[in-house]
Amino acid sequence: MSALRFDPPLYLAPMEGVTDASFRSLVLEENGPGTVGAACTEFLRVTDHPLPLEFLRKELGPPPQQDRAGLVQVGIQLMGNKPDAIAETSVLAAEAGAAFVDLNFGCPAPRVFQHCAGSALLADPQLLERVVRTVVEACPIPVTAKIRSGIEHDRDLEDIAKRVEQAGASVLSVHARLRADRYSDPSDWERLRRVRKVVSLPIYGNGDANSPENIARMFAETGCDGVMVGRGAMANPWIFRDYARRLAELPKIEMGVAQIVSWMGDYERRMLERGATPHQALGRLKQAFKALVKGAMLPAAEEQRKEFLRLQAGDDFLQAIAGLSDSSVPQS
Ligand SMILES: Cc1cc2nc3c(=O)[nH]c(=O)nc-3n(C[C@H](O)[C@H](O)[C@H](O)COP(=O)(O)O)c2cc1C
C-alpha cells in the first residue's frame, strides 16, 4: 500500500455533472490553501479498452493553485468491472498528472448498475477485490476506493472494507447509504463507525456532512480519519473555508450577492474557456443557482427563482441575480 495523506483530511466528493474541472478548480481555489486536502474527477467509465491519455488530461484539467503549491491532491476516478482495462487506464492517469486513482464502487445509476459496474460490484466482493488489487499492482500512484454501504443491505460492509484494505488501497471513502437508499435522509453513520473498527487504512466518511457543524459532528461521532463533502459544497461552495474558520474559532465570512454573482461569472468563464457552449454553461450556472438558493446563500423567492430560470442568456441570468438584495439573505 502506498501511503497517501490528505492534509487537511477534507475531500471534495466527485459528482458527475457538477464537479468538472471548472467547478472543482474554482471550489479549491476559493476555499483557499489549507482548507481542502483532496478532490477527484467525476467517474470516468472504463469498458473494454483503456481510456485515452488526452481524455484523462482534459478531465483532470490544469492543476488548481493549491495543487501547484502541493497543498491539495487531485485524483482521477475510474469505474468499471474489467480489472485489466482499469489497470491500464490507471497507468495513463498517473501520466496525465493525477495524484491518485480512485475506484468507484458506489454509483447507483441504473445504466451503470445494469452493466455490473459502480455499486453493482458490491454484490461481487471477490471481483471488487480483484479490481482493486490489479490496479494497485499496475499503478505507480496510490489507489483509493469509494463504496456505498451495500446494495439492499449492509451485511457485507465489513467484509468489503477488509478486502479493499487487503488489496492494497490507500484510502477508503464510505458513503453511509445503500444503493437502495438513493439519496434519502439521513444517512446511517453507524456504518462509518463499523468500518472504522475493522480496518486500519484511512476511512473518509461521506453522507450528509453538509455544514461545518455536521462535518465536525461526523469527525466526532464516527472516528473517521477524514470527511468527504458532496452536495454541501454545491449548496455552499465555501463550506471548507467555513469549517476551517470554525475550527480556528474565527468568525464566518458572509458572502453577499455581489460576491456570489462574481463567483458565478468566474465559473461561467472557466467553463467557456474549457470548451463548453454558452448553452451548456448556462445549464450549469442554473444548476449552481438552484443549489445556492437551497443552501440559503442567495435570497430568491420561489417566483423569482422560476422567472430567473426561464432566462436564456448567461448575461441576463447573472444580471437578474445581481439585482437580488443582500438584506433578504436568510440567516442560518
Ligand atoms: C449529482 C451527483 C453526482 C454524483 N456523481 C458521483 C460520481 O461521479 N462518483 C462518485 O463516486 N460519487 C458520485 N456521487 C455521490 C457523491 O460523491 C456522494 O457520495 C453523495 O452525494 C453523498 O454525499 P453528500 O451527502 O455529501 O452529498 C454523486 C452525487 C450526486 C448528488
- The helix tally amounts to 15
CATH topology of the largest domain: TIM Barrel
| General form | globular
Low-confidence stretches: none
Structural class, by secondary structure, is: alpha/beta
State the end-to-end CA separation.
43 Å
Total DSSP E strands = 8
For this structure, what is the CATH homologous superfamily of the largest domain?
Answer: Aldolase class I
- Indicate the mean pLDDT: 94
Beta-strand residue fraction: 5-15%
Supply the CATH class of the largest domain.
Alpha Beta
Q: What does the radius of gyration come to?
A: 20 Å
- CATH architecture annotation of the largest domain: Alpha-Beta Barrel
Cofactors and ligands: flavin mononucleotide
Number of domains: 2
Biggest β-sheet: strands ordered side by side in the sheet: 1-2-3-4-5-6-7-8
* Helix and strand sequence: EHEHHEHEHHEHEHEHEHHHHHH
> Major sheet, described briefly?
8 strands, parallel, barrel
**Helical amount among residues, as a percent range?**
40-55%
In brief:
This protein is of the alpha/beta class and 332 residues long.
Question: Can you walk through the features of this model?
Answer:
With 332 residues, this protein is of the alpha/beta class. It has 2 domains: 10-247, TIM Barrel; 257-324. Helices cover 45% and strands 14% of the residues. The chain is built from 15 helices and 8 strands. Strands 1-2-3-4-5-6-7-8 form an 8-stranded parallel β-barrel, surrounded by 7 helices. Helix 1 links the parallel strand 1 (10-12) and strand 2. The longest helix is centred in the C-terminal third of the chain and has 17 residues, at 257-273. It is globular, with a radius of gyration of 20 Å. The termini are far apart. The mean pLDDT is 94. The chain binds flavin mononucleotide. The site of flavin mononucleotide (FMN) has 23 residues, from strand 2 and helix 10.
